[in-house]
Amino acid sequence: MATKTKKEREQQREHARLLYMQGEPQKSIAEKVGVSAQTVTKWVAEGGWEQARAAANITRQELVNKIFNSINVLLEDLANDPSPEKTAASADKLVKFAATVERLDKKTSVVDIIEVFMAFSKWLQYRMSFDPNVTPELLKTINHYHDLFISEKLKESF
């Protein structure tokens, strides 16, 4: 078997990463991509794919629910041992949990959306200086749809 070029190896790795992110088992990925299972395991570890897949697949609501479950366990534990030391430690944890839930449960505001769109527009304008696919017509079309999206979000807010 001929030795793979660096480009071919990177293509295999990227194909494997995409399959992994879609939930494909590592053994199956190895077979589909044409590498050993050990290679896939190495790529997963080196690339932080497991954390990336977890981050991509868990929703805010799931995180909030997990925190609520942790709060419930903490409260049950406190009910079984209401000592001052336990109460103080639990209170600190509850405050941290509450702050985390508040940050996670916060909905994206129209202002947040506008800021993202503005940053994206600036990036596209910069990109237009060297990318022939980014044309003034494209920018105009994107801005038109940005405006429509923001208008709809504003109507939903009221």
From TrEMBL:
It comes from the Bacteria. The keyword Transferase does not apply. Residues 13-54 form the Terminase ATPase subunit N-terminal domain. Keywords: Plasmid. SUPFAM superfamilies: Homeodomain-like. It holds the Pfam family Terminase_5. The keyword Metal-binding does not apply. InterPro entries: ATPase_terminase-su_N (IPR010332), Homeodomain-like_sf (IPR009057). This is Helix-turn-helix domain-containing protein. The lineage of its organism: Bacteria, Pseudomonadati, Bacteroidota, Bacteroidia, Bacteroidales.
